[in-house]
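User: My instructor asked us to take a sequence, write out its structure as tokens, and then describe one feature of it. I'm not sure where to start. Here is the sequence I was given:
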Amino acid sequence: RILLTLRLAASIVERVAKQKRQSGIKMKRISIAQRIILMIVASVIALMLVGGVGLNVSNQQTNSIRIIHEDSLTSIVTLNELRQAFMNIRVNAYAHLLTSDLDVKRGAESRIEEQRKRVQHELATYQKLISNEQDKKLLAADEASLRDYLDLLTQQLLPKSRRNEVDAERTAHVTRLALLSSKAQEALDAHVAFNVERAEASQLEALK
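Assistant: Let's start with the prediction itself. The structure tokens for your sequence are:
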């Protein structure tokens, strides 16, 4: 920045001299003191110009840091909370299916309901963090895949498991539930990846 300032100052001095020559004004010999004063004035002007550029760059960097911290990181934390709640539901769903003990099943159902509410809370929280249209589409995919999984689990599979019914329909539900589980996990992973890429892009912008 200092080198740039000196170059700008020299340029200003040269431009003043050139304008005087072009206008036909006869330049008198300038004393050393006058030259120093002229350089100081030119330096101040140059510093103001450089400072303006620096302020603009600083503002751009501040905005990039804000995007990383307030937008991307907050979104990633929220999505990780959502993924954790979904994983807890899956663990308790399999615990419900694998036992015939009604007390164990009731405990699993209670935890599933608790985590289902947590899922709804995190989805509602993320609504306030949507950054653009792509982010909105990814959230819609999260909601749809989680809704499909939870509907099948709570409306079809858990009632059968509660009655300890083992039949072809239950087997089909278990197979479909596994597919819906994978689909929901993929949707959440894609959404996290989107936010990570956005954070990295903002980081690169801040380092320019």
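For the description part of your assignment, you could build on this observation: Residues 32-98 form the longest helix (67 residues). Try explaining in your own words what that tells you about the chain.
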